[in-house]
Design a protein that fits this description.
CATH architecture of the largest domain: 3-Layer(aba) Sandwich
CATH topology of the largest domain: Rossmann fold
Number of strands: 10
Shape: elongated
Largest sheet: 6 strands, mixed
Structural class: alpha/beta
Strand order of the largest sheet: 4-3-2-5-6-9
Radius of gyration: 32 Å
Length: about 350
Amino acid sequence: MLWSLLVLPLLLAGYVWLLRRKRQQVVTFSAVSWILQNMELPSPWRRHIPPALIGLAIALLLFASARPMARVTLPADYMTLIMAMDVSRSMLAEDVDPSRIKAAQKAAKEFLQDLPKNVRVGIVSFAGNAQVVQHVSQDKDVLVAAIDRFQLQRGTATGSGLLLALSTLRPEAQIDLEAALYNTNPFSYSDQGQSGGSKSLDAKPAAQERTPEPPGSYKGGAIVLLSDGRRTTGPDPLLAAKRAADLGVRVYTVGFGTPNGFIPGYEGYSFFTKVDEESLKAIAKITEADYFKAGSAEDLKQVYKHLSTQFTMEKRDTEITALLSGLALVLVFIALLLSALWFKIGPQNSFKSFVR
């Protein structure tokens, strides 16, 4: 249908021919009385504006006949949100009042209360390993109770948490979690955790046979991953993010804490805990999502408030034929209105012209 736009040069040529033909008629039949009657005509350029608007309207209608698509933001019918939250010992740090874990729990619960009813939520926690704290539910009281049940553990298996959240969101992908969640050396800082994580992503050939989906194309839900430290065990979170991208799932990441966070006097030791912002930014970038930095309880609350607006709206590829057709009608109306105002075209003038 786009080939029909070739009609436009023909219309332009016809308009130019009519103008030249009109000039010839004026020269042939001109008279002083006719000139006097038309001395108050508007500026010459005005006569070209209504035809130009009509031509543009025709172009829009021809373009609309091709049924173009555009990505627009519309309210989501329903959505599943998986919250993957870090419950490692570093969440005991008190750089956020009263502590990182208490502030994160409070902000998460307030976030749940602000979500509309069409958003279902599942909760995954991860430390040295990952587990589903609460399966997908719309019962906010149950979800709040699940957040209150968090138990802090050693280690930070960010990749395991992300994979479990992905499996919970898209169970039809049949992700093999056994190697990732039950690593024989869960607290190792060596490359064994990375190699084991890499194998876990490829453990099931059937899952690898799926055709990769465009990143960010999955509209049924998303993952929010909150962490305050770097990965110490489990699969590589960047490989897990690549798997999420292949399934079209966006992973929004939140780095919680300050650069100088520390745990005073824990088990006889005091140590610093630093947010691994680079990894969190990379995860969000791979999945075409966003990274948010939260250095305080108030920052985290604002992050969740921003996320809640994103999860209640979604971008869809929608046909805009009706929009272009409506715009074309508006242009036609404007062209008729300008003709009536500038050239006194109306029923009364038309009748006088007919009598003459």
